[in-house]
Automatic annotation (TrEMBL):
SMART domains on file: AAA
InterPro entries in the record: AAA+_ATPase, ABC_Ni/Peptide_Import, ABC_transporter-like_ATP-bd, ABC_transporter-like_CS, Oligopep_ABC_C, P-loop_NTPase
Topology class, membrane: Peripheral membrane protein
Family under the similarity heading: Belongs to the ABC transporter superfamily.
Native source organism of the sequence: Vibrio parahaemolyticus
Family annotation (PROSITE patterns): ABC_TRANSPORTER_1, ABC_TRANSPORTER_2
Name of the protein: ATP-binding cassette domain-containing protein
Length: 367
């Protein structure tokens, strides 16, 4: 896994931005869109999530767009408050009552954001599964594991109780839970943290969903159990050809699991790239800062580099780039003008005014 400082990829922009190269920009945009959207099972377009609060309206997610294909893993990464979890809660119809969601979330052509609660419940159970960060707040503490699992199949698959119990035992075995028959008769508090998370994975996969949303699935687990859970997810993904939308702040998990990565900050998409490209050539200053903060096993680092400053306020009164106050490369236009998300090549896109000034040369090289 790539570790340590990425200072070998500094900013050194010399070419001014030229509007005469719009055809090259258009070519790169079309190339990136083609790669992102061909055969996509889920396509998000201009998603916005806002909340009404006593202090004003909060913009949790701003104009977010991405897509995911069958069988691939897309990681959404960012620090706490970046909007990554709120974006998937909006997908699943789990936004709080004071929230407002707009945009499109097309799942096989159907807009999840305009569905009724009844339609969403059907999709959530049969087509899209979700693993939450803390199993203890997701599992019913007063119901045995077996009852919680079997009820999913009885309600959504129309199975008899006997069939549902047999299928549930089979799924517990599939997620590597020993003595599954015994576990069926236990309550959540009687299981370890790792076992509870495996139960959550089993529950999410019971109906063989096409898409699995995993929101920080290993955060509360120790390193050994975390590795086991990640290995399990990869094995199950291969077996069922399930797409995984992985929400995390852990770049090590991203390197281990993801085919592509979307970096969020301040509710906005900062960078998107295939995983190898992102780790080898991070383009956005925020992404570079995240990767510099990864501990190195080869270098003596008395202190980990940090990104100075604080995240921006989410209240809707700011202009410009959300990362501007923490960026060493900011320009005057970063203060007043929100950068557009633009392609660098067929593998990588960013929202950055600084990078825009040299993007044309990169596009010509890739075209």
């Amino acid at each position: 896994m790539p570790c340590g400082c990425y200072s070998s990829h500094p900013y050194s922009w010399s070419q001014p931005y030229s509007v005469s190269t719009s055809s090259a920009m258009a070519y790169a945009t079309l190339l990136t869109q083609k790669i992102d959207k061909d055969n996509s099972m889920l396509s998000i377009e201009n998603m916005n999530v806002r909340f009404d609060t006593p202090d004003g309206q909060v913009q949790a997610v701003s104009n977010l767009s991405y897509s995911i294909k069958a069988g691939e893993t897309l990681g959404i990464v960012g620090e706490s408050g970046s909007g990554k979890s709120q974006s998937v809660f909006a997908l699943m119809g789990l936004t709080a009552d004071n929230g407002n969601v707009s945009g499109e979330a097309l799942f096989h052509g159907e807009n999840l954001l305009s569905m009724s609660k009844k339609q969403l419940n059907r999709i959530r159970a049969e087509k899209i599964g979700m693993i939450f960060q803390d199993p203890m707040t997701s599992l019913n503490p007063f119901m045995k594991i077996g009852k919680q699992l079997s009820e999913v199949l009885m309600v959504h698959k129309g199975m008899s109780r006997k069939q549902a119990i047999a299928e549930s035992i089979q799924m517990l075995d599939a997620v590597r839970i020993p003595s599954p028959e015994t576990r069926m008769n236990q309550y959540p508090h009687e299981l370890s943290g790792g076992m509870r998370q495996r139960v959550m994975i089993a529950m999410a996969l019971l109906c063989k969903p096409e898409l699995l949303i995993a929101d920080e699935p290993t955060t509360a687990l120790d390193v050994t159990v975390q590795a086991q859970i990640l290995t399990l997810l990869r094995e199950l993904q291969k077996e069922f050809n399930t797409a995984i939308l992985l929400i995390t702040h852990d770049m090590g998990v991203v390197a281990e699991m993801c085919d592509r990565v979307l970096v969020m900050y301040g509710g906005q998409k900062m960078e998107q790239a295939d995983t190898d490209t992102l780790f080898a050539q991070p383009a956005h200053p925020y992404t570079q800062g995240l990767l510099r903060a990864i501990p190195s096993i080869t270098e003596d680092m008395p202190r980990l580099p940090t990104i100075p400053g604080n995240p921006p306020s989410a209240l809707i009164n700011h202009q410009g780039c959300p990362f501007r106050d923490r960026c060493d490369y900011r320009l005057a236009r970063c203060q007043a003008e929100t950068p557009k998300f633009m392609p660098l090549n067929g593998r990588q896109s960013i929202a950055c005014h600084v990078k825009a000034q040299s993007s044309i040369s990169l596009i010509h090289q890739s075209a």
